[in-house]
Amino acid sequence: MVAKDESLNICDCPSRRSFLSDLGMGFTGLALGAMLSDDGITRGEEAVRLGTMGPPSNEPHFAPKTKSVIWIFLSGGYSHVETFDPKPALNQYAGMTFDKTPFENPVNSPLHKKRFRSVAAEEINIRDVYPTIYPMQVGWKKHGESGIEVTDWWPHLSKCVDDLCFVRNMWTTDNDHAAENQIHTGRHRLDEPQPSVGSWVNYGLGTLNENLPKFVVLGGPTRSDTRLSIDSYYLGPQYAGVPIVLDPKDPLPFGRRSSKQTATDQQREYQLIGRLNELSAVEYPDDQDLRARIRAYELAFRMQMAVPEAIEFSAETEATTKLYGLDNDATKGAGQKLLAARRLVERGVRFVQVFPSAYGVWDSHQKLKENHTRLCATVDQPVAGLIQDLKQRGLLDDVTVVFCTEFGRTPGLELRGGGKDGRDHHPNGFTIWLAGAGIKRGFVHGATDELGYHALGEGHYVTDLHATVLHLMGLDNRRLEIPGRKRLDIDHGRVISEVLVST
Fold this sequence. Notes:
By secondary structure, the protein is an alpha/beta fold. It has one domain: Alkaline Phosphatase, subunit A, CATH 3.40.720. Helix content is 31%, strand content 11%. It has helices at residues 16-22, 32-39, 41-50, 88-92, 110-115, 179-185, 197-204, 263-279, 288-310, 318-323, 329-346, 368-392, 462-472, 489-492, and strands at residues 68-74, 140-143, 148-151, 164-171, 215-218, 242-244, 351-354, 399-405, 408-409, 425-426, 430-436, 443-445, 460-461. Strands 1, 4, 5, 6, 7, 8, 11, 12 and 13 form a nine-stranded mixed beta sheet that branches. A hairpin with a 4-residue loop joins strand 2 (140-143) and strand 3. The radius of gyration is 25 Å and the shape is globular. It starts with 15 loop residues before the first helix and ends in an 11-residue tail after the last helix.
């Protein structure tokens, strides 16, 4: 028998609360965050502590028009004038400089300096002002009952124009590829970053499926320096996008159960953690990384069965897989991601961000015709297949599709490096399109000038697109605020009401 040590002071012993909290770097809280967040306890306490103006209990601010968003992003900057905003004047005045045309020289427009923010000093910057007009490298036609012009590089998507809504007067400020982050966060790289649009959706709304993340990413982030495009920044890491690999056998490389552990053992482990959580509160309520880790473990446990099933295509018909181009090596990569996106929104995922192409591949400084001919062929059929598939399943009434890039391409010929067949980055005006729930169909909003240089009128900065998507999901962008992190007015953007179906 061990002798009793009368000198032992009970005050020197750690409390049960501290012991359970500290065990294994917060082992006791492993599952707590996800459970309390889902039932509103953590969210409610956090809102009281921070004074958060976000929606209570993850409820929308008003009746939503859509349940989910598929956000398709083409990295590198596709040419707006050779895709969805054809400009005949480029052919008519090809080889002339801007000042030799009957149009106002766009470089002299006040819009140029207003919307252009180069990291390089202005006196040494030559980008975006190439004055020699470069002709269009492809033909175009009017399509559908709406008569919307689309170039010949999109034979499949052009058949869907009556279901699409084009916004031809988008603009941004970053003239380099940090604009990839900017179109997702709304901020120039010289400014404080902001949470991505998918993270705001994740933060603002409750889940439709407890076994899947609310914000899933397919094919990205394309590089480590584009992590901001799916990041949640000050909202907390639990609201960031969850990348999924399209391999049903290993979709979550960092979320697998050990081969030495059975499913029953793992379930018992989580049950033990749950019981420990009931004994003591978590000692570190302000540790967002810990809360995110807790949530991730719990969600990962549930996802181990749900995710492989969601990205398993064996139940799809041959006609469906062909619709997405899975039978063609050129279209298979994009087709798989877009088919997976459809299956995920079918299962209640709120926001699916899809990168159908590799980083920067649309960046056609040279050989634009060769590059865009090939690249359009890799995504045209899969994207059109997605629209057709959503429509035939009745999902265009529940899902909104966004198709975008970070900026357009210059109307002038790029001259750097002896250039002779390409276009440079162009933030001053470009085109995106939307389709589906809450969106007008067969409609064009806004325009660029005759040369495709400036977005006319006020145009739409990238956060206008964010505000529109959030509005469709029943969220008021201006009520999604965190005290101490007040955003600028431009960060909020304004809803592009012109593209919405009136109610």
